[in-house]
Recover the amino acids of this structure.
């Protein structure tokens, strides 16, 4: 049900939109649309064909140890829990998303200025630490287990949901005192990446089956909203992903 | 030793809106122009996978790589400046087209008041209205003188709009009609009319219909795709340099673009530049490009920085108020606003365009009486529907937890039910707000970074409060429930939350060599064959986005360069 959307229900398919909207302009098309979009061949698709469900090869670890993964997976689920509205961060794959992000340039702060000298600075001057995001996660995860152990003699993911919330709250409010990193800054990062994992395009490993988008009524990657932009009624649409764009 | 290339007529440093406009105008008239751009080539086809919030909006796909170069910041001179290690307050463009590729396209004209701000403020309120340390000055050009250039920028870009009832006089209507309206915009329109204000559609560089500009460039209409600010446009519908001015310059056969070319020094002897020195970042080679005329279009920060690094012009000294390079750095007071929660209706917030909005200028410039107010100037107040994407938009009513079950439910519920009205506050310059070279931190080549010394002042706090209340009145009149948030408190300037990429000043224009760095053609007083183009020329920042005015000044500068090149030298008058 999730992988197949009837393309006819979509407001406009990319190709018919491009053909019909006069985008192929006569004369000088310097500013015009990418010709490659028009030239692209439709992938052969038989009507009524249902793709067989395949394993999700994306769900393996690039950075976390299995232990770290369990902590993060449990924490994400408390930040964005499963409820009557739909799946939580766990089912949406948010922890895989975070794992994959930390494995890449973002985890290495590759595009951040990381040269010294390092000084503490004022809050308004932003992050001034020398630790990279992946190192902050390493420390933060370890400290979550340490703190859980100190309270309940168990690791974070072994606690009850209520106990987990208490631990997270203690990090959020800096009740946990850490020396190398700020507990609240780590929590803020965990929260932000959880939301990214819930709502980023599924191509990154989270927002599985676009269910995060569905709950929020966000239609994902649509080519155009000209047909609904003026209307008073709310437009409910089945979301589309970048994968649909690549293979559509 | 740097390898020396043959001399060209003009070398342009940075190819965004400024560089693109200069190149197209000069090559049309037969000059040979080389454009040195530190970033990579860009084209519309690059945006096939552009509807990706994470990559473009949150990981800053199109922005300058801060690991190589950033800025440093401190609130005042007795605080140690520290590097902006990751993005926050503003985003720096790089690559062909610069920020012009991923801007929104909100294209305003500054008000007649702006260009003569000091004279007009004194005329109406007396000199004591200007507080100690506020260094506002007239721009050395009037709105009427700049009007034809505003028009040229708008015709070239295809700005969609309608007459602003409180704006400066226009010689021509906008080239294309305003964009479509949405329920939220219509509610804003009705509410402001009810309050006896003067709403008008935001002037937009997202084309409202297919358009062929005076240069013969045809572009398609905007599709309201909702991935605009921070994204490139896959339709070429958003006016950007790559789909407008750069192709025209290229077509002339007289424009050579060299990407991956990072300019590091302006070379000069006596009071003239001889060319520039740059590093080819693909090979590391240092290259000298001699030229008759050097045009800096490398955005506000690098315009100042390159002059300071090259020891060209008189550096500004905040202690004496003397010198000009780095003077009058200003920004935007963007945090006063109001948020309304609409329990009983949902909006198609995911749809939108970068410059889809409606606004009022009743509280902008000197359009209202400031006699009993402790600030000057004001803000354009607007509702905009730029496309709310799901990661960045999780607004919940005050008192809701920021995570967990309750947060999830509220953030999902209100995603489609929140509207906000914002004020884009003007930013006045102060004697102690300036740019200079950082003594400690360096870029990847070992050159000092530019240092910002800046904070919000009482002027800004008063302005933000006043405008926030106006925004609150509007959102109430729009029918928001009792859950309304009015953000009156400005706080200190903080480099971490995104506010706007509306940095201004540093190489300001004016009527006198004592108080300004460039004349009304953006020609340097101290080096007649150097033109410094961009919002760096703004003597203060108005209550609007800068690019309409910056674009007009670029056309003006192009005309000056042509005059200078024909006349064979001297300062233009
Ligand atoms: C997300 C975003 C949204 C915006 N929305 C709006 C809006 O709605 N309305 C509005 O009016 N403005 C908006 N702006 C601002 C607008 O984009 C800028 O005012 C405008 O693009 C500036 O043009 P420029 O040519 O002066 O500078 P840039 O576009 O920054 O171009 C400068 C170029 O110079 C190059 N360069 C810099 N240093 C060097 C060097 N040393 N050597 C070689 N090349 C160099 C850079 O790589 C860049 O390509 C927005 C900006 C951003 C980031
Ligand atoms: S909203 Fe319009 S102008 Fe902006 S990127 Fe989408 S189609 Fe282009």
């Amino acid at each position: 049900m999730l992988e197949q959307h009837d393309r006819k229900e979509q407001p406009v398919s990319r190709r018919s939109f491009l053909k019909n909207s006069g985008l192929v302009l006569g004369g000088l098309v310097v500013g015009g649309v990418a010709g490659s979009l028009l030239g692209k061949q439709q992938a052969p698709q038989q009507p009524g064909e249902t793709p067989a469900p395949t394993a999700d090869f994306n769900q393996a670890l690039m950075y976390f140890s299995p232990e770290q993964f369990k902590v993060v997976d449990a924490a994400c689920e408390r930040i964005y829990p499963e409820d009557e509205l739909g799946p939580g961060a766990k089912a949406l794959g948010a922890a895989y998303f975070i794992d994959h992000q930390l494995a890449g340039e973002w985890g290495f702060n590759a595009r951040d200025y990381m040269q010294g000298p390092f000084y503490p600075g004022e809050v308004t001057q932003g992050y001034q630490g020398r630790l990279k995001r992946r190192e902050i996660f390493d420390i933060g995860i370890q400290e979550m287990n340490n703190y859980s152990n100190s309270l309940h003699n168990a690791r974070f993911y072994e606690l009850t949901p209520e106990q987990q919330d208490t631990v997270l709250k203690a990090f959020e409010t800096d009740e946990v005192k850490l020396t190398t990193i700020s507990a609240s800054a780590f929590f803020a990062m965990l929260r932000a990446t959880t939301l990214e994992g819930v709502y980023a395009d599924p191509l990154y490993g989270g927002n599985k089956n676009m269910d995060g988008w569905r709950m929020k009524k966000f239609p994902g990657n649509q080519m155009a909203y000209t047909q609904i932009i003026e209307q008073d009624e709310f437009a409910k649409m089945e979301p589309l992903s970048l994968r649909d764009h690549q293979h559509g | 030793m740097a390898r020396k290339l043959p001399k060209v007529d003009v070398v342009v440093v940075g190819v965004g809106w400024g560089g693109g406009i200069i190149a197209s105008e000069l090559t049309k008239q037969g000059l040979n122009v080389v454009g040195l751009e530190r970033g990579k080539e860009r084209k519309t086809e690059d945006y096939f996978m552009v509807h990706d919030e994470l990559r473009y909006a949150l990981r800053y796909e199109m922005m300058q790589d801060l690991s190589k170069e950033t800025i440093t910041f401190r609130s005042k001179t007795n605080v140690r400046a520290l590097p902006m290690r990751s993005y926050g307050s503003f985003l720096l463009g790089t690559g062909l087209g610069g920020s012009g590729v991923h801007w929104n396209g909100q294209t305003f004209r500054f008000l007649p008041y702006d260009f003569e701000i000091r004279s007009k403020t004194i005329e109406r309120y007396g000199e004591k209205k200007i507080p100690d340390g506020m260094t506002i000055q007239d721009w050395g050009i009037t709105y009427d003188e700049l009007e034809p250039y505003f028009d040229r920028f708008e015709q070239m870009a295809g700005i969609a709009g309608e007459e602003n009832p409180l704006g400066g006089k226009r010689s021509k209507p906008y080239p294309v009609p305003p964009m479509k309206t949405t329920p939220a915009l219509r509610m804003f329109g009705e509410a402001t009319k009810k309050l006896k204000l003067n709403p008008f559609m935001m002037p937009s560089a997202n084309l409202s219909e297919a358009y062929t500009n005076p240069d013969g460039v045809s572009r398609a209409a905007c599709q309201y795709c909702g991935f605009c600010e921070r994204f490139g446009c896959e339709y070429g519908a958003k006016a950007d340099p790559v789909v407008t001015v750069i192709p025209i310059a290229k077509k002339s056969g007289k424009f050579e673009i060299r990407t991956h070319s990072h300019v590091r020094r302006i070379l000069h002897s006596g009071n003239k530049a001889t060319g520039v020195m740059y590093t080819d970042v693909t090979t590391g080679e240092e290259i000298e490009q001699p030229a008759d005329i050097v045009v800096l279009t490398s955005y506000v920060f690098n315009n100042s920085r390159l002059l300071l690094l090259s020891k060209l012009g008189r550096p500004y000294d905040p202690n004496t108020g003397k010198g000009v390079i780095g003077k009058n750095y200003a920004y935007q007071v963007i945090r006063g606003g109001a948020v309304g929660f609409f329990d009983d209706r949902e909006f198609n917030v995911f749809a939108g365009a970068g410059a889809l909005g409606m606004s009022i200028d009743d509280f902008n410039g000197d359009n209202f009486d400031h006699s009993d107010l402790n600030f000057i100037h004001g803000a354009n107040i607007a509702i905009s529907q730029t496309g709310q994407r799901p990661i960045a938009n999780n607004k919940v009513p005050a008192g809701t937890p920021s995570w967990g079950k309750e947060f999830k439910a509220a953030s999902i519920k209100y995603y489609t039910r929140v509207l906000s009205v914002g004020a884009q506050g003007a930013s006045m310059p102060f004697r102690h707000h300036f740019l200079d070279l950082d003594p400690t931190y360096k870029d990847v080549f070992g050159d000092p970074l530019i240092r910002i010394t800046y904070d919000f002042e009482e002027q800004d706090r008063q302005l933000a409060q006043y405008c926030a209340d106006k925004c609150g009145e509007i959102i109430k009149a729009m029918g928001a429930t009792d859950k309304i948030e009015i953000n009156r408190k400005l706080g200190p300037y903080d480099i971490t939350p995104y506010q706007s990429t509306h940095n201004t000043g540093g190489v300001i224009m004016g009527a006198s060599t004592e108080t300004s760095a460039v004349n009304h053609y953006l020609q340097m007083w101290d080096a007649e064959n150097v033109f410094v183009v961009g919002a760096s020329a703004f003597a203060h920042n108005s209550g609007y986005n800068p690019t309409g005015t910056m674009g007009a000044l670029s056309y003006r500068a192009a005309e000056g360069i042509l005059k200078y090149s024909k006349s064979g030298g001297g300062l233009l008058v």
Q: What stands out?
A: Chain B touches chain A through 80 residues (CB under 8 Å). Chain B has one domain: 3-566. The two ends of chain B are 39 Å apart (CA to CA). Chain B has a mean pLDDT of 97.
